[in-house]
Amino acid sequence: MSAASKVRRARLGDIVKRLFPKVMQKIFKECVSPRGLQGKYQQKHITIDFTENEISLMEKLPNIDDFTIELCYKILRHENVFREPSCKWGNVPHDSEVEIGDDVQRILNATNDVIIRKSEEISELWYQEFQKRTQEILKRVDKFLGQNTSIQLYQTIQSSNINLTDILQDLALMQQVNVIQAVDIDSEKIERYSRVSRVIIDTFPNILRDIIRSNISANKLYQMCLPHLNSFSIDQKTILNNLQSSHSYDSMDITLIYKLLRQFLLVHPPTKGWGSNPDKVDINLADDVERIRRYRNQLAHRCSIDIDKNEFDDYFNNFCDIGNRMDLNFFHKTNYEQEIKGHKTCSMDMQMQTKYKNALKQLENIKLQFEKKPIKFFWGETFDRSLRNLRSILKEGKSEEGRPKVRLQIIFQSEEEVETTIAILNSLKDEINEDLNGIEFIVATKGSIILHIDILPQLLEADELLQSNLTLLLRKILERITASNTESIDMVVLLVEEFTQWNASKPIEHSVYLNFEIEAELLETDDMIEEQLRKLSYAIFKNPNGSGTNTNTTATLLPIVLENIPNTTAAVIQAQTPVKYNLPVSVNFRQQLNIKRSINENQNISSCIKIGNALVFTDNDNYRLIICNSGETDLHHIPLSYTLRYITKVDSNTIAVSCTYDKIILIINIFTRSVTKKIKTSDYCYGISYNDNNLYVVISGVMIRVIDMTGKVISNIYLPSNHITDITVDRNRLVYKDSTSISCCSLDGKFVWKFKNGKFKDLRRMTTDDDGNVYVTSYNTNIVVVVSDDGKLYRELLNKSDGLNRPCGIYFDKKEMILLVSNFHDGEAILFDVKSKPT
Q1: CB 697, CB 685: distance < 8 Å
Q2: Nearest to residue 588, comparing CAs of 818, 282, 294?
Q3: Using N-to-C axis directions, what is the helix angle for 69-79 and 20-31, rounded to 10°?
Q4: Which InterPro entries match (predicted)?
Q5: How many whole angstroms separate alpha carbon 672 and alpha carbon 649?
Q6: Residue among 608, 405, 575, 369 nearest 491 (CA)
Q7: How far apart are the C-alpha atoms of 738 and 763, rounded to whole Å?
């Protein structure tokens, strides 16, 4: 063994011993607050299997000077503070993969390489390549940290003298970093479920939207739905009622589009008819519509998220086939097949997995309802809602003439011998039904195993009746199949949705919609309603000259929307309780500002704030802040090298701006027009709000990170939302939004309320007043909506007639009661005076 190879190994050992731990500690401090971690550790909120040495190091928190590479890695992964490597933990990143997670993995790999490699295996070429790769890693880490300390430490260590014997002895005692430590044994199955979920949540709805969009306009579909609105759920009615104003199908889900395509015969029926499982050779458009609906239900009705590799591959093969046929159907103007392939292989970190896993589970929210060993019965919200409606009908004594029984499906979720079991059950149908009263087994079909059951509605009247009858039937079935000895069987119960074809109504050539406000008391009895309608009809059809008309006219009364009207009990309570709502009474135009230098200048104003007389705007296209005063006599620009998105006021001189795709927050003094601090974030940063010396920042759309003004992480708040974009901290609460809803939670993340109305889409920015009312811009509908501080009431405050044209930025000056709204494209901002109700 040459002396030179020993020196090379010792030099590399010095990097592993002195450099890499310090670099990992720097990354750790950037992403995790040591003091915050100390609190979580003391409260036993960290579920990591620490070694004895690691426990002693954790006891020293917030001091992390002796944290090992492996301990830093364990906690960074447990806290999930940045995206995992594209290659997944424990593998070798590709040279093109250069996110911070990729470089953390490279540090782990490099450490293990040096530990296991013998001196004679370290050639001069291998040594030089290692040094080169290390420097590249350190430069990227320094860029992530916003400093150059890592590369400086490397240079210091490289130029220092080493004790050859000591370092080689230390290397001999070192253990490899265990990169598998934090991996859950079921993580692969969960990831498969999340990838399949992404197709169901993102791609399949878009396919069906393209199909219905290509067959009928939104306005025409709305007219067709009017006579049948009572056939839809409350949520579906809201979506349909908004078709006329939105002209968009974007809020429609798979279930609603399937129902519309089928009921109105908007596409030719599937080969085997609606509701039947298509054969593999059935490849018409409607066959794939039926498949999409079935895949959606099949996955949403699972009570387990485990998907093995063969099942996963089978799903994606079938999904890709659907995507390919859809691309052909739309003459290759779509790219669904490639999109689906991307879902199968794209980088998916833990946050994305959680997002799509939860989104699919929440479609039906399947829960364990009761257990009569060995059978566990599950059902979701759709069945539960149907059950409540049925029981209400039974309680009121309404007959179900022409439908003496209800059809149920029961799905065996864990059944191995599917084909054999189906054959046995269908051959013993009469034997199974013998001695059963009011419940009848019809047929078993494939899909795990699905049992079709007819049951008298009266047997569903109470939980005990439902449980006992289902248990009796299932026990008779289990006696006849091999699964009878199994320890536990999961059953999902579904109500079969009937599709009664609606009678086609004659098209109305010219419809006139009349809207009236009428006191509720005047509709209290049929006679009173008749009297009011008689007066209305006389007023409407009386000719200007006073003579009547002989035209025969048919009028239809549309359903009254009662969702915001309290029931009798609630009305009594409300009458006895002082009204606390303080929605603004009026807004008055104050001033319009033009913040464009020239007509030909392109601007995209995404956010705005008002600090005293200074108005500040983020100009995305031109990488700058625009500052003017309310007198519009002074206009300044602060050029920056980042794409500015969200903005918050820190004090009378200072603002903080989040630059989403640059993963950086800028602290800017607007009077000196200088950047005073840059704070790097671990991922894309969206909405930002300042409160009590801390910044609250949306990270990656799925959590709120609380950081102090030096950039230290105080805590992370995870919220139940698919994609959070903007937040504001107000009165010890967090108000946050995605593109279609506004939600509120406490500062520790406990959910308080949610507001959603299908009319308001593409919500952009928000602000609050002193009463806690939330003001939000609705970009596509040119509206500013204000929502009460408990999320129960709302009002359209401003619209296009007030000068709104794709409004985006919004800010409420609480001191002067002035609302500032900025339009996205035209370089215009408008100030309004706001008047509130007296408390």
Answers
A1: yes
A2: 818
A3: 20
A4: 6-blade_b-propeller_TolB-like, HEPN_DZIP3
A5: 16
A6: 369
A7: 7
Copy the structure tokens of residue 497.
């949705």
Q: What is the per-residue DSSP string for 321-377?
A: HHHHHHHHHTTTS--HHHHHHHHHHS---HHHHHHHHHHHHHHH--EEEEEETTEEE
Query: Looking only at Cα atoms, what is the longest distance across the chain?
Result: 118
**Which of 817, 789, 821, 792 lies closest to 804 in space, CA to CA?**
821
The dihedral over CA atoms of 784, 785, 787, 791, expressed in degrees to the nearest 10, equals: -130
CA dihedral sign, ordered 477, 480, 486, 487 = positive
Distance between CA 683 and CA 140 in Å, rounded? 15
pLDDT in tens, 395-441: 666 544 444 577 777 766 555 566 777 777 778 778 877 877 777 77
φ/ψ (deg, to 5) at 616: -120, 130
> 584-836 — its CATH code?
2.120.10.30
The first and second tokens of residue 307, run together, are 């998907």
**DSSP reduced 3-state for 201:** helix
Distance spanning both ends of the chain, measured CA to CA: 88
C-alpha dihedral, 670 to 675 to 678 to 683, nearest 10°: 60
With tokens 């008391």, the residue in question is: 521
- Tell me if residue 81 falls in helix, strand or coil: coil
Beta strands in 246-315 (DSSP E): none
Pairing of strands 807-813, 794-798: unpaired
pLDDT category at 465 given cuts 50, 70, 90 is confident
d(CA 575, CA 583): 18
pTM: 0.41
Confidence of residue 383 (pLDDT cuts 50, 70, 90): confident
Q: Are 723 and 712 in contact (CB under 8 A)?
A: no
Beta strands, E only, 581-684: 584-594, 605-611, 614-619, 624-629, 635-639, 646-649, 654-659, 664-669, 674-680
Domain limits, the chain: 3-173, 187-364, 367-495, 518-547, 584-836
Beta bridge partners of 666: 657, 678
Bridge partners for 779 per DSSP = none
- Whose tokens are 């409160």? That residue is 691
Q: What CATH fold (topology level) applies to the domain 367-495?
A: Alpha-Beta Plaits (3.30.70)
SS3 (DSSP) at 605: strand
C-alpha–C-alpha distance, residues 215 and 670, integer Å: 53
Q: Phi, psi at residue 806, to the nearest 5°?
A: 60, 60
544 CB-near residues (< 8 Å, 6+ apart): none
Tokens matching residue 806 = 């794709």
Say if residues 377 and 473 touch (Cβ distance below 8 Å). no
Work out whether strand 375-379 and strand 489-495 pair parallel, antiparallel, or are unpaired.
Answer: parallel
- From residue 497, alpha-carbon distances to 46, 257, 274, 386 in Å are 46, 15, 12, 10
Assign 435 to helix, strand or coil. coil
**Gap between the Cα atoms of 52 and 707, Å rounded:** 31
Measured between alpha carbons, how far is 595 from 629 in angstroms, rounded to an integer? Answer: 10
Beta-carbon neighbour count of residue 570 at 10 Å? 10
> DSSP 3-state assignment of 299?
helix
Q: Identify the CA nearest to 689 among candidates 711, 707, 715, 670.
A: 707
The tokens of 691 are what? 């409160």
What token pair was written down for 78? 């447990």
Q: 37: closest CA among 85, 69, 75, 3? A: 75
Asked if 811 and 621 touch (Cβ cutoff 8 Å), the reply is no
- Tally the residues of the chain: 839
Instruction: State which amino acid sits at residue 310.
Output: N
For residue 584, count other CB atoms closer than 10 A to its CB.
Answer: 20
Backbone φ and ψ for 495, nearest 5 degrees, come out as -95, 130
> Residue 114 above 70 pLDDT?
yes
Q: Is 466 helix (H, G, I), strand (E, B) or coil?
A: helix
